[in-house]
Amino acid sequence: MDMFPTPLFERIRRCGNVAVTVIEDPENAVPLARALLAGGVDAMELALRTPRSIDALRRVAAEVPEMLVGAGTVLTPAQAAEAKAAGAAFAVAPGFNPRVVRAAADEGLPFAPGVMSPSEIEGAYELGCTKLLKFFPASVAGGIPGLRTLAAPYKHLGVKFLPLGGLKLENTADWLAEPLVAACGGSWIAPAKLIAARDWAAVEANAAAACAAARKARGE
Hints:
- The chain has 10 helices and 9 strands.
- The longest helix is centred in the last third of the chain and has 18 residues, at 200-217.
- Strand 6 (114-115), helix 6 (118-126) and strand 7 (132-135) form a beta-alpha-beta unit.
- Helix content is 46%, strand content 15%.
- Helix 2 (29-39) runs parallel beside helix 10, helix 4 (77-86) packs parallel to helix 5 (98-107) and helix 8 (169-176) packs parallel to helix 10.
- The chain is an alpha/beta fold.
- The strands form 3 sheets. Strands 3-2-1-9 form a 4-stranded parallel sheet.
- It has a single domain (6-217), classed as Aldolase class I (TIM Barrel), CATH 3.20.20.
């Protein structure tokens, strides 16, 4: 079984950008999701790094069904189960933990573990992560040249990557022009300071800029 169903993978690829968010106050979750949608970004990763992040995820899944909301920083089997129960459409992690990948598979939760080495790619592929992997931390791991070198022996397998870490508006188009990249993970689209200030207009503007970069990269 592939950990990422094709329709889900294609939706993320079409969007081109996954807004990576950290939410302290669940009251901000729904307006944040709506601001992202208004700017054209319909996929978001809600990182499980705060005490009430699951509550925030649950609210987005229930109240903004047009948003494809996933759980990020899923580090344990228990978190995989919790994310699935809260309505996460997918989950990602910064690293590759076989126990978490297996738990996500058992839950029927599409999962993309983080990789930055050949051994991690091979381990993830063996466990069914054959369509999408997270490349993290992208800037530290060599950027686009680093990804090309890392992925070269596996190019025939057709695996695509979701880079995160050091991405910003100025280099999003460059990443999306790379055939190995399915979409970009962008924490710059809705940073914590904008969420805390409830500056939804700025979030919407950033989302629109991210979508414009995707269109530029794809010649649309």
